Amino acid sequence: MLSDNLKNGDDLGLDASVHIRKARTMDVPGMQRLINGFADKGAMLHRSLSELYENIRDFFVVIEDDCVVGCAGLHVSWKDLAELKSLAVDESAQGRGFGKELIRTCLNEAEEIGITRVFALTYVPALFEKNGFEVVDKAMLPRKVWTECVYCPKFPDCGEIAVIIGIGGASIHESSAGNQIVLEPIRR
Prior knowledge:
By secondary structure, this protein is of the alpha+beta class.
């Protein structure tokens, strides 16, 4: 489902020096620089080099002139649920559609592997809402999410907003097998 247009940058109206691809181990230092740069400002969580190397298969990167200018990961949480995490675009590259394309790329992969719902925890819910996600109460996310959140230094008062989207027409209200929690959107 990843279009050839995305691979060469045409979908973004860019030249061939910009493309989105699966991350490689050589990208990890650039990914960490991006992620931890925003984390230093309180905008996301820090990620260690070892965490990024261990999860390299989850990530996509935006490459411009052989440099990582954006990244995002799709981490499977359950048979039908994945988290879009560590979405970061270099400040000098923002406003060019890279965040949107990283989200779309992760959603395409989710559909390819049979995931029906993707969530994110974010301080920037508007970006996700523009891309079809709905804001939900974080407390309503499955227990799997909380098993990771309890290790966060910001837990329980991080202030991140939970967003979720159904893939391929799936409802965000469907519960995972063995999980009776029903997600309810927050009405604004």
